[in-house]
Amino acid sequence: MWAVNYILLGLRLLKQTPLSKDIMKYPISSLQWLPLIFFLIISTSVLSSTTTATTLFEIPRLSPLGGILQDPETVFSANVSDDFETFYYNQTLDHFNYMPESYSTFQQKYVINSKYWDGANRSAPILAYLGAEAPLDGDLRIIGFLTDNAAEFKALLVYIEHRYYGESIPLGSSRKVALGNASTLGYFNSAQAIADYAEIIIYLKEKLKAQNSPVIVIGGSYGGMLASWFRLKYPHVAIGALASSAPILYFDDITPQDGYYSIVTNVFRETSETCYQTIKESWSTIDEVASKPDGLSVLSKTFKTCNPLNSVYVLKNYLVSMYGHAAQYNSPPKYPVTIVCGGIDGAPPETDILDKVFAGVVAYKGNSKCYVNALENISETTVGWRWQTCSELVIPMGITNNPMFQPSPFRLSDFTDWCRSLYGVPPRPHWVTTYYGGYDIKLVLNKFGSNIIFSNGLRDPYSSGGVLVNISESIVAVHTVNGRIFP
Q1: Helix (H) or strand (E) segment spanning residue 107
Q2: H/E element, 476
Q3: How far apart are CA 285 and CA 423, in angstroms?
Q4: Which parts of the chain sit beneath pLDDT 70?
Q5: CA–CA separation, 362 vs 302, rounded Å?
Q6: What is the pLDDT of residues 257-314, one digit of tens each?
Q7: I want to staple 168 with a disulfide (CB 3.0 to 4.6 A). Which of 108, 210, 214, 365 is the partner?
Q8: 220 in the Ramachandran plot: left (φ > 0), alpha (ψ -120 to 50) or beta?
Q9: 458 within 8 A of 22, measured Cβ to Cβ
Q10: Coil, strand or helix: which one is 373?
Q11: Which helix (H) or strand (E) holds 480?
Q12: What is the pTM assigned to this prediction?
């Protein structure tokens, strides 16, 4: 009965607010939950010999919260409730080997809110939030979903930080050492991360004498993938999982590589047909200008680039990434796509097409001395995510047949060369489906899986790789047609 009762708990969590309102509420943004606080920094590289195609190697982060339209000062100044207590667990470096170095440990951060817990004697539930590709502090400041529901379910809340992010840095807690090379980064993967979570949850249940308290793991985006995988790998630890916006099928060509940018295109077209048409027509104009002897100088001036363009691909990749980012985080009250299109459509009628596109850039980014190729202080989050996608989380995202964008197909050979240039090791594009599964997901999970809720907003570009149909009575898919990041 635990399985039935506590997966219903997860379903009840989803029903706290009408689906049309996207269910979650928290202080800063009403459509997102399980948010992360770092800016999505897209840096692009190009390996292309054609005049029209670009190659996008950076896989957009899965963070449910975008940073461009988020005031970081507001995020960091938000107070963390006194109900949260911070602890550190002496975590094993390598769960899967018995070499001497595998026994090294590091301090992994976790946070507990026991305000609403009815205690181990009553077998009250434990809701465990699985941290994703960012420090945990931002989630604690913004997330309101778990605390909103903890009182009703008299639940203990546990938040666990992902290894290599925030304060949970292995190898002497030195980011420079831990993120320094492929050898030290080799302990940085999802399998190690969910083993970390299992070890901490088991430890806490023993410490609290709460062996009979059922655990439900919860995560969003990458954290949602971790939650679903955790339930499959550690069913003895967690009785159920809520996996929000989790594109577990965007691997190994299970999902068409166009999935992400197809939704981006749909969002722009539904927002403004004229904006969509302007973006669609702008690429050939950019190429035409770039082909002239002083074309790159003209483009540099038009788009106020921070440094003179040495390739048209730098500009085009910047714009493609910006449009994708706007669509991925197109939530109220800002509605980034509306802001971009407001800039494009709001330009005077006599404005040429490139100036219209630039007006969209300014509307989205805000007034700045320069745009496009500014030198950036790349955060640890960006470095970490780049490693993860260059090693195991190879999401084959590309553009092949899209009416708003030029072709930019994903080519594994080019992506492999790029990752080798960064780390000296190639990615393993088939590992996720080998280790966690993915093919024939309905048939396979119907045989051995249970108690997982997959939730998606269909305007989230990553929903193209999500589970959108029920698999069984206890593996259910919940979605909103007009939702974005869905809790």
Answers
A1: strand 105-113
A2: strand 475-480
A3: 37
A4: 1-55, 64-80, 484-487
A5: 12
A6: 999 999 999 999 999 999 999 999 999 999 999 999 999 999 999 999 999 999 999 9
A7: 108
A8: beta
A9: no
A10: coil
A11: strand 475-480
A12: 0.87
